[in-house]
């Protein structure tokens, strides 16, 4: 414990850590370690290989209908169905956000109530 106090008491000095080997001393990996060609069907596929919605394979000589720049579809119908689903999801999200905001407003502070009073003169006779 005394060694720790002594080594830390000197201002401006840092503890010395021995250097480990440099990167130059590491073994050089062969090029075969960097390139692995996986031709199995289970591997990742190119994003234009199948329809995003129905997963139908896209033929190389057929039209591909794109949505949002990088989502492929086999037909206009599949694309329109996805657009409709996205619009419905966005609409529901906005409704839920409004509902949550209204609930937050109503639960955080009660709205002030206005009391209407009619001014009149009473004459006793």
From TrEMBL:
Zn-finger segments (FLZ-type): 46-90
Record flagged with keyword Hydrolase: no
PROSITE patterns reported in the protein's UniProt record: ZF_FLZ
FLZ-type domain: residues covered: 46-90
Molecular function GO terms recorded: zinc ion binding
TM region positions: none
Cell cycle is among the record's keywords: no
Gene Ontology biological-process entries: regulation of DNA-templated transcription
Name of a matching Pfam family: zf-FLZ
UniProt keyword terms in alphabetical order: Metal-binding
PANTHER family: FCS-LIKE ZINC FINGER 1, FCS-LIKE ZINC FINGER 1-RELATED
Family listed: Belongs to the FLZ family.
Protein name listed in UniProt: FLZ-type domain-containing protein
Organism: Platanthera zijinensis
Taxonomy of the source species: Eukaryota, Viridiplantae, Streptophyta, Embryophyta, Tracheophyta
């Amino acid at each position: 414990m005394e060694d720790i106090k002594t080594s830390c008491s000197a201002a401006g000095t840092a503890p010395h850590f021995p250097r480990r080997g440099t990167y130059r001393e590491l073994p050089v990996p062969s090029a075969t370690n960097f390139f692995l060609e996986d031709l199995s069907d289970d591997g990742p596929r190119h994003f234009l290989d199948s329809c995003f919605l129905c997963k139908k394979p896209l033929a190389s000589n057929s039209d591909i209908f794109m949505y949002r720049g990088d989502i492929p579809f086999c037909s206009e119908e599949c694309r329109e169905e996805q657009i409709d689903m996205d619009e419905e999801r966005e609409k529901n999200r906005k409704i839920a956000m409004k509902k949550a905001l209204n609930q937050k407003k109503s639960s955080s502070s009660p709205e002030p109530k206005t009391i209407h009073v009619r001014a009149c003169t009473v004459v006793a006779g």
